[in-house]
Target: Probable 6-phosphogluconolactonase
Amino acid sequence: MIQTPFRSLTNATKILLPTPSSSSSSSSSSSLRFSSTAFSFRELSLSSVSPKHKGAFFSTLKSSMVDTQKNDPAVEVFEKEELAVALAKYVADLSNKFTTERGAFTVCFSGGSLINYLRKLLEPPYVDSLEWSKWHAFWVDERVVPLTHEDSNYKLANDGLLSKVPIPPGNVHVINDTLSAEGAADDYEARLRELVKNGVIASSSVTGFPKFDLMLLGMGPDGHIASLFPGHPLVQENKRWVTFIKDSPKPPPQRITFTFPVINSSAYAAFVVTGAGKADAVHSALKGSQNSPKLPAGMVSPEGELKWFLDKGAASKL
Ligand SMILES: O=C(O)[C@H](O)[C@@H](O)[C@H](O)[C@H](O)COP(=O)(O)O
Model:
């Protein structure tokens, strides 16, 4: 069971979510950590595996059992200012890791409140020390509006962060805003394929989908992520890298979005979720229930690490 020690800790509460079969737990002064076993957030369905593919399935299963020790989501709860401080450090550490290891850092932005929480990257020590020239910016989802429009996720990120740091314009991978939703999704996917070929974006040896270094995700009060909404057929898309929606419940209606296989092939993924209005969805995504369908936010399971940055309101029902 998840305990809720949030009130007793000053800076942040760290929780590794336990599965029902957790065997032990330990705690330190500033964090509470549960050991946990595999499968906690990875859905596996044997019924969908044909006898012909069972061998491959079980070898993948074996490797995912090894991997899932590091896949359990880490949840941290912050005061608002502290959340921004911790998020900047998290992104900066990954920037340093990937620019050193692979000479590029591929970061995918969402829209919404996320960008404002990245503001500490514009302050010392990060603003002058990060290798911005090696960043490549992408969008997990984008609204199909002109790039100059107030609703554009690019404009939001550009105004709030990208225009203030020396990322080469060619590394900012915006949608083609002259195209229809369908055309923009096809075009974005084609450009991602080119960047995988060139080695700018890594490729997952497990899934064959692009493996972005970091996905930065928000979540709506309904549990949607990117432009993948609960109950919408796009949530099940498993072939396309980028797809489109013309009836988004959250305006504006026309958007393009990464699909789950792309989101879940990433090396790192982080949620930034704040406000008591999202507490139910946070609870449902993290603790779930066998009886209710999984929210899109509960289906996020990157190849590497998943982290949730929450404020006390968003964590209030855990
Ligand atoms: O373009 C979008 O609308 C988003 O990418 C969307 O998925 C967003 O991240 C969530 O709706 C959370 O938004 P807030 O943080 O503003 O609630």
About this structure: The helical segments are 54-71, 80-102, 114-117, 126-129, 153-160, 181-197, 260-263, 279-287.
